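User: Sequence in, structure out. Go.
Assistant: Echoing your sequence, followed by the structure tokens.
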Amino acid sequence: MNIAENLTRIRSEIRTLEARYGRKQNSVELLAVSKTKPISAIEAAIAAGQRHFGENYCQEGVEKITSLANLELIWHFIGPIQSNKTSLIAEHFDWVHTVDRTKIARRLNDARPDSKAPLNICVQINISGENSKSGLHIKQVPEFIEAISDFDRLKVRGLMALPAPAKELQAQRQPFKEIYQSFEQLNNADLKLDTLSLGTTQDREAAIAEGSTILRIGTALFGERDA
């Protein structure tokens, strides 16, 4: 597994897809999903120029952030948020992609150190209506953003979703299209959102086609998930 070669290939693919679907060049950020991967794998990605990393598990992520604190990296929390982990997340991460409850947003806001910039957050949407997944119904998003608008240690950047798997490109594109339409409606209401955290290894083309600005890539970069 050559992580540097994988990064080069994925970046080239992203640029190709940006051109194919009329996206602005370099408008899609590659987020390396490093959950369960050792520090050595992250260091290999860093050596190849990667700066954005995503972690699903709080304690594991904090350990990695602490170990690599001397480097200028940007850390994204992309897993389910437990109430008792909000302080650690707010203190160590730069982004949180999975906010869907006012209680959690309040806890993150209250725990965010004044010495740090506001915590960038994405509102998680359960676009496929799966009982097993967290997230708001897409119609609940405007009210939710309004409810957390006074939390000045948070900065709402956009929307995040992980749709149900689909094999065909057009089927993959449909839920992303719905999210993009909601994103546009929110911006028409002057919310000034700039981020769509959409797409993984399996559906990255569909996500780029429908406006994703952050691709969460793990398997294509680091290989199959470790236990």
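User: And one key feature?
Assistant: The mean pLDDT is 95.
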